[in-house]
Amino acid sequence: MGDPGREDARPPGPAPHRDAGLQPERTRLAWRRSSLSATVVAVLAGRQLVRSGAPGPVEVLGTALLGLMWLMFVVIAHRRMRAMAAARPAGLPPRAALLLGGGTVALAVFGAAILLPGH
């Protein structure tokens, strides 16, 4: 229990009121920034594929998977941004979280494979 003579001691009771509109707006903006970043990565990967003289099957497959993962990310992000309009938005479904997490790990592995010597 806190010392009643301290300045930072607060009386028991409900938490101070906060503007509920700020957190959903920040979350919506974060999803927009993440979507933009994913789009830039997908465009740069496509550009790299086009600029390479004769891309191998690994590069073509990797870029195709990247395109599918980009599409999945944009769809989930769009749904989350729309959900932020609700007064009390629902959390991210576990399946969507797993897809996003797995996609992120897959992109990291793909990026590491591309950077390996001999590629």
Task: Explain the overall architecture.
It is a single chain. By secondary structure, the protein is mainly α. Helices cover 66% and strands 0% of the residues. The chain contains three helices and no strands. It is elongated, with a radius of gyration of 22 Å. The chain starts with 21 loop residues before the first helix and ends with a helix. The relative contact order is 0.11. The model has no long low-confidence stretch (mean pLDDT 78).
SSE order, one letter for each helix or strand: HHH
Secondary-structure class: mainly alpha
Radius of gyration over all CA atoms, rounded: 22 Å
Main sheet? none
The amount of helix comes to 55-70%
The tally of beta strands, per DSSP, is 0
What is the percentage of strand-forming residues? under 5%
Contiguous uncertain segments of 5+ residues: none
Give the number of helices.
3
Mean pLDDT: 78
- Shape, principal axes of CA atoms: elongated
How far the N terminus sits from the C terminus, by CA atoms, comes to 62 Å
Keywords: Membrane, Transmembrane, Transmembrane helix
Pfam families: DUF202
Protein name: DUF202 domain-containing protein
Subcellular location: Endomembrane system
Tags for this model:
119 residues, mainly alpha, 0% strand, elongated, transmembrane, membrane, DUF202
Structural topology:
Layout: H1 22-51, H2 57-83, H3 94-115
Structure at a glance:
Pfam families: DUF202. By secondary structure, the protein is mainly α.
